[in-house]
């Protein structure tokens, strides 16, 4: 059976509903083998994608997940077509309206295959990056317990936090490898580039300072389109959690591990930290 309503995903349907399938596949937890491990794996994949698709190995898990996400997006597109609102109300419905508008345009790039690709990119670009940034933020809060209190009131956005992305790839036949680390760790731009230091963003009177070398979202044509959303999400999550729970190491646990795991993003080591409910702090939830 193939998808109805002209969805370009012309492959057999899974019997499990996509959202359940998606969450089941994505929350199954770590398996013994780490996909695409090793420092050269991301570059190799970009240079030889066809080889990576054919070679057996743990990285095949990524392609299976990719299929699950793709199926889920196809189902969403189908649902949107079934109950098309009068006025487009989200990204998929706006894009579908644009496809209809551009039907007679022979050079239009608005089509369903591209819609699937763009939505996958939003998932890919918008989840691990933000989650990893938050993860590092809380690890640094545990490491620098003393600054947690003042930071509750003066969180300055994600600006004072490790950038999780080390390099990224371009499209349209040209491989672009902007090395953001060269500016984010440049000793000429940062007093202590290898250390967490909120002072990088404060002037001598403690006022917020813009540093032009702070480019975690890249710049120019390649700037991250989720920049504003990410900063808003990070601010809300970080500020709300921090004002409600002091973060600390669990009793008797070893020192924090600050070395990163090298990959598509720079991941913190798996380790436990405690969010201790604080009686005098405001309660979590909507206010
Ligand atoms: C801390 C959070 C984030 C960081 C550090 C980050 C960083 C970046 C960087 C550096 C790029 C440029 C890649 C290049 O040079 O080609 C990029 C691209 C991208 N980001 Fe983000 N991003 C974040 C959050 C998000 C969010 C929340 C979304 C969407 C919901 C998003 C969607 C994308 C997409 C779709 C691209 C590819 C754009 C293109 O190729 O034209 N990102 N991101």
UniProtKB/TrEMBL annotation:
Q: Name one GO cellular component term.
A: cytoplasm
Question: Where along the chain is heme bound?
Answer: 224
Molecular function terms from GO: heme binding; iron ion binding; oxidoreductase activity, acting on paired donors, with incorporation or reduction of molecular oxygen, reduced flavin or flavoprotein as one donor, and incorporation of one atom of oxygen
Q: What cofactors are annotated for this protein? A: heme
Q: Which family does it belong to?
A: Belongs to the cytochrome P450 family.
What Gene3D superfamilies does the database record attribute to this sequence?
Cytochrome P450
Print the keywords alphabetically. Heme, Iron, Metal-binding
Q: What is this protein called?
A: Cytochrome P450 2J2
GO biological process terms, alphabetically, are: organic acid metabolic process; xenobiotic metabolic process
- Pfam families the UniProt entry points to: p450
């Amino acid at each position: 059976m193939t998808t109805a309503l002209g969805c370009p995903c012309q492959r057999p349907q899974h019997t499990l509903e996509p959202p359940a399938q998606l969450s089941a596949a994505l929350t199954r937890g770590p398996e013994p083998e780490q996909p695409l491990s090793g420092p050269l794996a991301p570059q190799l994949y970009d240079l030889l994608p066809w080889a990576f698709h054919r070679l057996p190995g743990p990285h095949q898990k990524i392609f299976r997940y990719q299929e699950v996400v793709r199926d889920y997006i196809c189902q969403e597109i189908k649902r949107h077509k079934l109950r098309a609102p009068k006025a487009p109300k989200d990204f998929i419905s706006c894009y579908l309206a644009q496809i209809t508008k551009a039907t007679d345009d022979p050079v239009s790039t608005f089509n369903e295959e591209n819609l699937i690709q763009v939505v996958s990119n939003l998932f890919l670009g918008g989840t691990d990056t933000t989650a990893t940034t938050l993860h590092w933020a809380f690890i640094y809060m545990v490491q620098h317990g003393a600054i947690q209190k003042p930071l509750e009131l003066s969180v300055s956005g994600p600006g004072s936090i490790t950038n999780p992305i080390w390099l990224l790839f371009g499209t349209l036949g040209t491989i672009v490898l902007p090395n953001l680390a060269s500016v984010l760790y440049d000793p000429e731009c940062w007093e202590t580039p290898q250390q967490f230091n909120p002072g990088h963003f404060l002037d001598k009177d403690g006022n917020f300072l813009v540093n032009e070398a702070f480019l975690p979202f890249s710049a120019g044509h390649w700037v991250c389109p989720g920049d504003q959303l990410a900063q808003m999400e990070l601010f809300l999550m970080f500020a709300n959690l921090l004002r409600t729970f002091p973060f600390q190491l669990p009793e008797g646990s070893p020192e924090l591990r600050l070395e990163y795991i090298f990959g598509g993003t720079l991941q913190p080591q798996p380790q436990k930290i405690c969010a201790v409910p604080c009686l005098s702090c405001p309660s979590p939830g909507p206010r």
